[in-house]
Write a structure and sequence with these properties.
The structure is a homodimer of 191-residue chains.
Chain A: H1 2-11, E1 13-15, E2 19-21, H2 23-27, E3 29-30, H3 32-46, E4 53-57, H4 61-72, E5 76-79, E6 91-98, E7 103-110, E8 119-127, H5 131-142, E9 146-156, H6 161-167, E10 172-182, E11 185-188
Parallel strand pairs in A: 4-5, 4-8, 8-9, 9-10
Antiparallel strand pairs in A: 1-2, 6-7, 10-11
Helix pairs in contact in A: 3-4
Protein backbone atom coordinates (compact mmCIF):
# COMPACT_ATOMS: atom_id res chain seq x y z
CA UNK A 1 0.00 0.00 0.00
CA UNK A 2 1.72 3.07 -1.34
CA UNK A 3 0.35 5.50 1.25
CA UNK A 4 1.73 3.50 4.19
CA UNK A 5 5.09 2.89 2.52
CA UNK A 6 5.47 6.59 1.86
CA UNK A 7 4.58 7.41 5.44
CA UNK A 8 7.15 4.94 6.76
CA UNK A 9 9.80 6.53 4.55
CA UNK A 10 8.76 10.01 5.64
CA UNK A 11 8.22 9.56 9.38
CA UNK A 12 9.65 6.19 10.38
CA UNK A 13 13.00 6.08 12.10
CA UNK A 14 15.50 3.30 12.50
CA UNK A 15 17.01 2.85 15.93
CA UNK A 16 20.33 1.13 16.65
CA UNK A 17 19.87 -2.60 16.12
CA UNK A 18 17.75 -1.86 13.05
CA UNK A 19 14.54 -1.44 15.01
CA UNK A 20 11.93 0.42 12.96
CA UNK A 21 10.14 3.06 14.98
CA UNK A 22 6.76 4.24 13.72
CA UNK A 23 5.54 5.76 16.95
CA UNK A 24 4.65 9.11 15.42
CA UNK A 25 1.75 7.73 13.35
CA UNK A 26 1.13 4.07 14.15
CA UNK A 27 1.75 2.73 17.65
CA UNK A 28 2.01 5.58 20.12
CA UNK A 29 0.47 8.42 18.18
CA UNK A 30 -2.17 7.47 15.58
CA UNK A 31 -3.04 9.31 12.37
CA UNK A 32 -6.78 8.72 11.92
CA UNK A 33 -6.84 9.53 8.19
CA UNK A 34 -4.02 7.09 7.50
CA UNK A 35 -5.72 4.39 9.60
CA UNK A 36 -9.05 4.86 7.81
CA UNK A 37 -7.28 4.52 4.46
CA UNK A 38 -5.63 1.34 5.75
CA UNK A 39 -9.00 0.06 6.94
CA UNK A 40 -10.49 0.71 3.50
CA UNK A 41 -7.53 -1.08 1.91
CA UNK A 42 -8.07 -4.16 4.11
CA UNK A 43 -11.74 -4.06 3.17
CA UNK A 44 -10.90 -3.94 -0.54
CA UNK A 45 -8.70 -7.01 -0.12
CA UNK A 46 -10.93 -9.15 2.10
CA UNK A 47 -14.45 -7.92 1.31
CA UNK A 48 -15.55 -11.17 -0.34
CA UNK A 49 -14.55 -13.34 2.62
CA UNK A 50 -17.85 -12.97 4.50
CA UNK A 51 -16.03 -11.72 7.60
CA UNK A 52 -18.13 -11.81 10.79
CA UNK A 53 -15.47 -10.66 13.24
CA UNK A 54 -12.10 -8.93 13.34
CA UNK A 55 -9.66 -10.30 15.88
CA UNK A 56 -6.61 -8.39 17.05
CA UNK A 57 -4.27 -8.19 20.02
CA UNK A 58 -4.00 -5.31 22.45
CA UNK A 59 -2.50 -2.71 22.24
CA UNK A 60 -1.25 -1.55 18.87
CA UNK A 61 -3.58 -3.63 16.75
CA UNK A 62 -6.75 -2.04 18.10
CA UNK A 63 -6.77 1.20 16.13
CA UNK A 64 -6.11 -0.50 12.79
CA UNK A 65 -8.61 -3.27 13.48
CA UNK A 66 -11.22 -0.70 14.46
CA UNK A 67 -10.67 1.33 11.29
CA UNK A 68 -11.16 -1.82 9.21
CA UNK A 69 -14.25 -2.76 11.22
CA UNK A 70 -15.99 0.48 10.27
CA UNK A 71 -15.91 -0.77 6.65
CA UNK A 72 -16.71 -4.43 7.32
CA UNK A 73 -19.46 -3.44 9.82
CA UNK A 74 -18.50 -6.26 12.16
CA UNK A 75 -17.29 -6.26 15.79
CA UNK A 76 -13.63 -6.05 16.75
CA UNK A 77 -12.52 -8.50 19.40
CA UNK A 78 -9.18 -7.76 20.99
CA UNK A 79 -7.30 -10.46 22.84
CA UNK A 80 -6.10 -9.30 26.23
CA UNK A 81 -2.61 -9.72 27.54
CA UNK A 82 -3.19 -9.46 31.24
CA UNK A 83 -5.68 -10.78 33.74
CA UNK A 84 -8.17 -8.29 35.06
CA UNK A 85 -10.93 -8.56 37.60
CA UNK A 86 -13.62 -8.24 34.96
CA UNK A 87 -12.27 -11.04 32.74
CA UNK A 88 -13.32 -13.82 35.03
CA UNK A 89 -15.23 -16.15 32.81
CA UNK A 90 -14.28 -18.99 30.56
CA UNK A 91 -11.55 -17.94 28.15
CA UNK A 92 -9.58 -19.32 25.27
CA UNK A 93 -5.92 -18.73 26.05
CA UNK A 94 -2.63 -19.02 24.22
CA UNK A 95 0.99 -18.10 24.87
CA UNK A 96 2.95 -15.52 22.88
CA UNK A 97 6.61 -14.60 23.12
CA UNK A 98 7.44 -11.00 22.29
CA UNK A 99 10.98 -10.56 21.02
CA UNK A 100 10.71 -6.79 21.33
CA UNK A 101 9.65 -6.96 24.96
CA UNK A 102 11.70 -10.08 25.67
CA UNK A 103 8.95 -11.88 27.55
CA UNK A 104 6.24 -14.49 27.19
CA UNK A 105 2.68 -13.58 28.05
CA UNK A 106 -0.75 -15.11 27.93
CA UNK A 107 -3.36 -13.84 25.51
CA UNK A 108 -7.03 -14.48 26.16
CA UNK A 109 -10.47 -13.96 24.72
CA UNK A 110 -13.73 -14.78 26.41
CA UNK A 111 -15.25 -17.90 24.92
CA UNK A 112 -18.66 -16.31 24.36
CA UNK A 113 -17.17 -13.83 21.85
CA UNK A 114 -15.68 -16.36 19.42
CA UNK A 115 -17.55 -19.35 18.04
CA UNK A 116 -17.63 -21.93 15.27
CA UNK A 117 -20.00 -19.60 13.41
CA UNK A 118 -17.33 -16.92 13.06
CA UNK A 119 -15.38 -16.13 9.92
CA UNK A 120 -12.46 -14.18 11.27
CA UNK A 121 -10.14 -11.57 9.83
CA UNK A 122 -7.05 -11.27 12.02
CA UNK A 123 -5.45 -7.82 11.95
CA UNK A 124 -2.21 -6.71 13.59
CA UNK A 125 0.28 -3.89 13.25
CA UNK A 126 3.48 -5.88 12.82
CA UNK A 127 4.42 -9.31 11.53
CA UNK A 128 7.98 -10.48 12.08
CA UNK A 129 8.51 -13.85 13.76
CA UNK A 130 4.77 -14.56 13.65
CA UNK A 131 4.50 -15.21 17.37
CA UNK A 132 1.48 -13.00 18.06
CA UNK A 133 -0.18 -14.22 14.88
CA UNK A 134 0.32 -17.83 15.92
CA UNK A 135 -1.38 -17.10 19.22
CA UNK A 136 -4.35 -15.43 17.55
CA UNK A 137 -4.77 -18.32 15.10
CA UNK A 138 -4.59 -20.71 18.05
CA UNK A 139 -7.47 -18.87 19.76
CA UNK A 140 -9.56 -19.21 16.58
CA UNK A 141 -8.77 -22.90 16.30
CA UNK A 142 -9.80 -23.50 19.91
CA UNK A 143 -13.14 -21.85 19.11
CA UNK A 144 -13.45 -23.73 15.80
CA UNK A 145 -13.74 -20.32 14.15
CA UNK A 146 -12.55 -20.06 10.57
CA UNK A 147 -9.58 -17.75 9.83
CA UNK A 148 -10.57 -16.18 6.51
CA UNK A 149 -7.62 -13.83 6.23
CA UNK A 150 -4.75 -12.10 7.94
CA UNK A 151 -4.20 -8.36 7.47
CA UNK A 152 -0.92 -6.84 8.61
CA UNK A 153 0.18 -3.22 8.48
CA UNK A 154 3.95 -3.77 8.37
CA UNK A 155 5.62 -7.09 7.63
CA UNK A 156 9.32 -7.60 8.11
CA UNK A 157 9.72 -9.93 5.18
CA UNK A 158 13.30 -10.75 6.16
CA UNK A 159 11.87 -12.55 9.19
CA UNK A 160 10.05 -15.86 8.79
CA UNK A 161 6.52 -15.18 10.14
CA UNK A 162 4.77 -14.11 6.95
CA UNK A 163 6.01 -16.91 4.76
CA UNK A 164 5.42 -19.50 7.47
CA UNK A 165 1.70 -18.71 7.52
CA UNK A 166 1.42 -18.28 3.73
CA UNK A 167 2.91 -21.75 3.32
CA UNK A 168 0.30 -23.05 5.74
CA UNK A 169 -2.33 -21.76 3.30
CA UNK A 170 -3.42 -18.55 5.00
CA UNK A 171 -4.23 -15.44 2.96
CA UNK A 172 -1.70 -13.08 4.55
CA UNK A 173 -1.96 -9.55 3.16
CA UNK A 174 0.63 -7.03 4.37
CA UNK A 175 0.24 -3.38 3.44
CA UNK A 176 3.96 -2.62 3.68
CA UNK A 177 6.52 -5.38 3.24
CA UNK A 178 10.01 -4.51 4.38
CA UNK A 179 12.75 -6.32 2.54
CA UNK A 180 15.57 -4.94 4.64
CA UNK A 181 16.47 -2.44 7.33
CA UNK A 182 20.08 -1.48 6.86
CA UNK A 183 22.24 1.52 7.63
CA UNK A 184 19.23 3.55 8.70
CA UNK A 185 17.42 2.87 5.43
CA UNK A 186 14.16 1.03 4.74
CA UNK A 187 13.82 -0.99 1.55
CA UNK A 188 10.41 -2.41 0.60
CA UNK A 189 9.68 -5.61 -1.29
CA UNK A 190 8.65 -4.65 -4.82
CA UNK A 191 4.97 -5.53 -5.20
CA UNK B 1 -26.17 9.99 25.14
CA UNK B 2 -29.29 7.90 24.66
CA UNK B 3 -27.72 5.33 22.32
CA UNK B 4 -25.01 4.38 24.82
CA UNK B 5 -27.39 4.28 27.78
CA UNK B 6 -29.72 1.98 25.87
CA UNK B 7 -26.83 -0.27 24.95
CA UNK B 8 -25.68 -0.49 28.55
CA UNK B 9 -29.20 -1.46 29.61
CA UNK B 10 -29.43 -4.00 26.82
CA UNK B 11 -26.00 -5.65 26.91
CA UNK B 12 -24.27 -4.56 30.11
CA UNK B 13 -24.15 -6.97 33.00
CA UNK B 14 -23.56 -6.40 36.68
CA UNK B 15 -21.18 -8.77 38.42
CA UNK B 16 -21.15 -9.47 42.15
CA UNK B 17 -19.74 -6.42 43.92
CA UNK B 18 -21.72 -4.19 41.56
CA UNK B 19 -19.06 -4.21 38.84
CA UNK B 20 -20.53 -3.14 35.51
CA UNK B 21 -19.36 -5.34 32.68
CA UNK B 22 -19.59 -3.91 29.16
CA UNK B 23 -17.16 -6.31 27.50
CA UNK B 24 -19.53 -7.31 24.72
CA UNK B 25 -19.46 -3.88 23.04
CA UNK B 26 -16.96 -1.58 24.72
CA UNK B 27 -13.79 -2.97 26.27
CA UNK B 28 -13.15 -6.49 25.00
CA UNK B 29 -15.37 -6.61 21.96
CA UNK B 30 -16.01 -3.28 20.17
CA UNK B 31 -19.08 -2.29 18.18
CA UNK B 32 -17.72 0.02 15.45
CA UNK B 33 -21.08 1.67 14.66
CA UNK B 34 -21.66 2.52 18.31
CA UNK B 35 -18.12 3.88 18.66
CA UNK B 36 -18.47 6.05 15.57
CA UNK B 37 -21.72 7.47 16.96
CA UNK B 38 -19.92 8.16 20.24
CA UNK B 39 -17.07 9.82 18.35
CA UNK B 40 -19.55 12.04 16.52
CA UNK B 41 -21.22 12.91 19.83
CA UNK B 42 -17.88 13.95 21.35
CA UNK B 43 -17.24 16.04 18.25
CA UNK B 44 -20.62 17.76 18.59
CA UNK B 45 -19.80 18.64 22.19
CA UNK B 46 -16.19 19.80 21.80
CA UNK B 47 -15.98 20.96 18.17
CA UNK B 48 -15.46 24.62 19.06
CA UNK B 49 -12.51 23.94 21.35
CA UNK B 50 -9.86 24.05 18.59
CA UNK B 51 -8.62 20.58 19.57
CA UNK B 52 -5.18 19.70 18.17
CA UNK B 53 -4.74 16.32 19.82
CA UNK B 54 -6.74 13.61 21.54
CA UNK B 55 -5.03 11.99 24.51
CA UNK B 56 -6.11 8.65 25.94
CA UNK B 57 -4.71 5.76 27.92
CA UNK B 58 -4.13 2.26 26.66
CA UNK B 59 -6.00 -0.07 26.33
CA UNK B 60 -9.73 0.55 26.42
CA UNK B 61 -9.63 4.25 25.59
CA UNK B 62 -7.99 3.76 22.20
CA UNK B 63 -11.01 2.71 20.15
CA UNK B 64 -13.23 5.52 21.42
CA UNK B 65 -10.48 8.12 21.07
CA UNK B 66 -9.80 6.93 17.54
CA UNK B 67 -13.47 7.15 16.57
CA UNK B 68 -13.57 10.73 17.85
CA UNK B 69 -10.32 11.57 16.04
CA UNK B 70 -11.84 10.67 12.69
CA UNK B 71 -14.25 13.59 13.20
CA UNK B 72 -11.78 16.05 14.74
CA UNK B 73 -9.13 15.15 12.13
CA UNK B 74 -6.36 15.28 14.71
CA UNK B 75 -3.91 12.63 15.96
CA UNK B 76 -4.65 10.32 18.87
CA UNK B 77 -1.87 9.96 21.40
CA UNK B 78 -2.21 7.05 23.78
CA UNK B 79 -0.26 7.00 27.01
CA UNK B 80 1.50 3.70 27.56
CA UNK B 81 1.40 1.68 30.72
CA UNK B 82 4.48 -0.44 30.29
CA UNK B 83 8.05 0.13 29.25
CA UNK B 84 9.02 -1.27 25.89
CA UNK B 85 12.27 -1.32 24.01
CA UNK B 86 10.99 1.17 21.47
CA UNK B 87 9.91 3.78 24.04
CA UNK B 88 13.41 4.81 24.99
CA UNK B 89 13.39 8.54 24.63
CA UNK B 90 12.47 11.38 26.90
CA UNK B 91 9.00 10.87 28.32
CA UNK B 92 6.49 12.63 30.51
CA UNK B 93 5.44 10.16 33.19
CA UNK B 94 2.82 10.00 35.89
CA UNK B 95 1.52 7.40 38.33
CA UNK B 96 -1.98 5.93 38.27
CA UNK B 97 -3.62 3.55 40.72
CA UNK B 98 -6.19 1.18 39.23
CA UNK B 99 -8.79 0.09 41.75
CA UNK B 100 -10.09 -2.56 39.36
CA UNK B 101 -6.66 -4.10 38.88
CA UNK B 102 -5.52 -3.26 42.40
CA UNK B 103 -2.13 -1.91 41.36
CA UNK B 104 -0.23 1.26 40.66
CA UNK B 105 1.46 1.70 37.31
CA UNK B 106 3.37 4.32 35.41
CA UNK B 107 1.86 6.00 32.37
CA UNK B 108 4.08 7.68 29.82
CA UNK B 109 4.04 9.68 26.63
CA UNK B 110 7.04 10.69 24.58
CA UNK B 111 7.81 14.36 25.06
CA UNK B 112 7.98 15.08 21.35
CA UNK B 113 4.27 14.21 20.92
CA UNK B 114 2.84 16.70 23.43
CA UNK B 115 3.77 20.37 23.56
CA UNK B 116 2.69 23.78 24.80
CA UNK B 117 1.11 24.32 21.39
CA UNK B 118 -1.41 21.53 21.96
CA UNK B 119 -5.06 21.97 22.85
CA UNK B 120 -5.95 18.57 24.17
CA UNK B 121 -9.17 16.59 24.41
CA UNK B 122 -8.75 13.75 26.90
CA UNK B 123 -10.94 10.73 26.17
CA UNK B 124 -11.36 7.60 28.26
CA UNK B 125 -13.85 4.77 28.60
CA UNK B 126 -14.57 4.96 32.34
CA UNK B 127 -14.46 7.66 35.00
CA UNK B 128 -14.89 6.57 38.61
CA UNK B 129 -12.26 7.66 41.12
CA UNK B 130 -10.59 9.86 38.50
CA UNK B 131 -7.18 8.24 38.92
CA UNK B 132 -6.42 7.66 35.25
CA UNK B 133 -7.80 11.08 34.39
CA UNK B 134 -5.58 12.71 36.98
CA UNK B 135 -2.55 11.04 35.42
CA UNK B 136 -3.50 12.18 31.91
CA UNK B 137 -4.04 15.77 33.09
CA UNK B 138 -0.66 15.61 34.83
CA UNK B 139 1.02 14.60 31.56
CA UNK B 140 -0.59 17.61 29.83
CA UNK B 141 0.51 19.95 32.60
CA UNK B 142 4.09 18.71 32.38
CA UNK B 143 4.03 19.52 28.66
CA UNK B 144 2.29 22.86 29.26
CA UNK B 145 -0.43 21.63 26.92
CA UNK B 146 -3.91 23.01 27.47
CA UNK B 147 -6.69 20.58 28.47
CA UNK B 148 -9.69 21.86 26.52
CA UNK B 149 -12.08 19.14 27.52
CA UNK B 150 -12.57 15.67 28.94
CA UNK B 151 -14.80 13.17 27.17
CA UNK B 152 -15.84 10.02 29.02
CA UNK B 153 -17.97 7.13 27.80
CA UNK B 154 -19.27 5.92 31.16
CA UNK B 155 -19.07 7.89 34.39
CA UNK B 156 -19.91 6.33 37.71
CA UNK B 157 -21.41 9.46 39.20
CA UNK B 158 -21.62 7.87 42.64
CA UNK B 159 -17.84 7.95 42.76
CA UNK B 160 -16.00 11.24 43.17
CA UNK B 161 -13.82 11.54 40.02
CA UNK B 162 -16.20 13.47 37.78
CA UNK B 163 -17.21 16.10 40.24
CA UNK B 164 -13.65 16.55 41.45
CA UNK B 165 -12.50 17.62 38.00
CA UNK B 166 -15.66 19.66 37.25
CA UNK B 167 -15.04 21.62 40.44
CA UNK B 168 -11.49 22.25 39.25
CA UNK B 169 -13.02 23.94 36.20
CA UNK B 170 -12.64 21.23 33.57
CA UNK B 171 -15.33 20.65 30.96
CA UNK B 172 -16.07 17.00 31.74
CA UNK B 173 -18.65 15.50 29.37
CA UNK B 174 -19.79 11.95 30.08
CA UNK B 175 -21.99 10.16 27.58
CA UNK B 176 -23.59 7.87 30.16
CA UNK B 177 -23.72 8.88 33.82
CA UNK B 178 -24.54 6.08 36.20
CA UNK B 179 -26.30 7.20 39.36
CA UNK B 180 -26.29 3.80 40.98
CA UNK B 181 -25.57 0.12 40.45
CA UNK B 182 -27.77 -1.85 42.78
CA UNK B 183 -29.32 -5.30 42.85
CA UNK B 184 -28.19 -5.98 39.29
CA UNK B 185 -29.83 -2.81 38.00
CA UNK B 186 -28.30 0.27 36.38
CA UNK B 187 -29.86 3.68 37.05
CA UNK B 188 -28.69 6.68 35.05
CA UNK B 189 -28.52 10.28 36.18
CA UNK B 190 -31.39 12.16 34.53
CA UNK B 191 -29.88 14.57 32.00
Amino acid sequence: MKLLEERILQDGRILPGNILKVDSFLNHQIDPDLFMAMGQDFYDHFKDKEITKILTLEVSGIGIAFAAATYFKVPVLFAKKSLSLTLTEDVYASKVTSYTKKKTFDIRVQKNFLSDQDKVLIIDDFLAMGEALGGLIDLCQQANAQVQGIGIAIEKSFQPGGNKYRELGYDVYSQAMIEKLEDGKVTFVKQ
